[in-house]
Amino acid sequence: MIEKLTKTNEEWKKLLSPLQYHILREKGTEPAFANVFLENEEPGFYHCVACDNKLFSSDDKYNSGTGWPSFSKPITEKAVIIAPYPGQGTDGAEVLCARCEGHLGHAFLDGPEPTGQRFCMNTAVLKFNKRSN
């Protein structure tokens, strides 16, 4: 079980950049092909910028051609919350951080095997911790 982190909107505004706040708390999206981790190929882990929850591994990252980094699965099933997201089509769902419930991006059922999933993430709300080999 992941311990929840709850803050008021004013507390989040003090902790996050305007773009991070817009994405995490207002369900915004950063521009396609204009994000910091799209081309990152270093081994490591992607965490939520707001609460440091470990979300994804570089081992599961791939280029989906959509303009946002995509992952075939979260680091664990409990790391994220997948919620229906109106307007994203029948296979689209909203992806939230399980700790702070911030909006991270969207999940679709058109990813590579073996999961068939595509977790399409906004990198402005992720931080990367390089893994040493």
Give a short summary of the structure.
The protein has 133 residues and is an alpha+beta fold.
Element string (H = helix, E = strand)? HHEEEEEEEEE
CATH domain fold name: Metal Binding Protein, Guanine Nucleotide Exchange Factor, Chain A
From the coordinates shown, what is the CATH architecture?
Beta Complex
Uncertain stretches = none
* Strand adjacency order, main sheet: 3-4-8-7-6-5
Counted by DSSP, the helix tally is 2
Can you tell me the CATH class?
Mainly Beta
How can the largest sheet be summarized? Answer: 6 strands, antiparallel
The whole-angstrom Rg is 14 Å
Overall geometry comes to: globular
Number of strands: 9
- Amino- and carboxy-terminal Cα gap: 29 Å
Indicate the structural class: alpha+beta
Instruction: Give the helix level as a range of percent.
Output: 10-25%
Count of domains = 1
Average pLDDT taken over every residue: 91
Hey, roughly how much beta strand do the residues contain?
25-35%
Superfamily (CATH H level) name: Peptide methionine sulfoxide reductase
